[in-house]
Amino acid sequence: LALTEMSSPSLKIGAYVLIGVGALTMLMGFLGCIGAVNEIRCLLGLYFTCLMVILITQVAAGLVIYFQKEKLKEEVFHVVSKLIENYDPSKEDQRNLEDVWDYVQTQIACCGWTGAKDWESNKILINQSMTAYPCSCSNSSKNLQTESGFCNLDVPVNGTATHADWPVHEQGCMDGVEKWLKDNLGVILGVCTGVAVIELLGMILSISLCKNIHSEDYTKVPKS
Q: For the stretch 135-146, what's the b/e string if a residue is b when 16 or more beta carbons lie within 10 angstroms of its beta carbon?
């Protein structure tokens, strides 16, 4: 529920597309197995069609991400900004979404979307005069076991502080994600290419099976 309320239209559409592709993949596998075992041409034809639709969807999604990346980046910024502003470890109804964001900040070693300053909009931190900070942003070894919620500053300056006083990572998660994508671009392209090749092989095999079944049916027809 929290994710639905905070998502932008593009992200919602993307989520629905992924759900649809997942359901189609399950249906595709079922049709392929039944069609191959029982040599049913129509099911093999549906299997081929499903594979083709999935392949086209993947190519289209890649093109949309490439050409609309700036718009997607802006929409993600709005979603993350709202998440950070309302971040509250005591609210169980949004705990799952907050755990995901804490995991991102911990794994990528980043803080906020553009930087730690994003967290200065958090309502709880404002009430505490910035004398606490998100634990998942910490670059201190003593907080390695605490990956969620807020941690208190050891020595608050005059009872108030800013993000510059926090022992957190300076890098924003937007830059961290982009760096991760660049560093792993070869692996990502390799995986995408491998999946596309497997799908193409599946399409070729389904066509071959259909032709074999057709040939067998033709030879079984009694000649007059």
A: bbbbeeeebeee
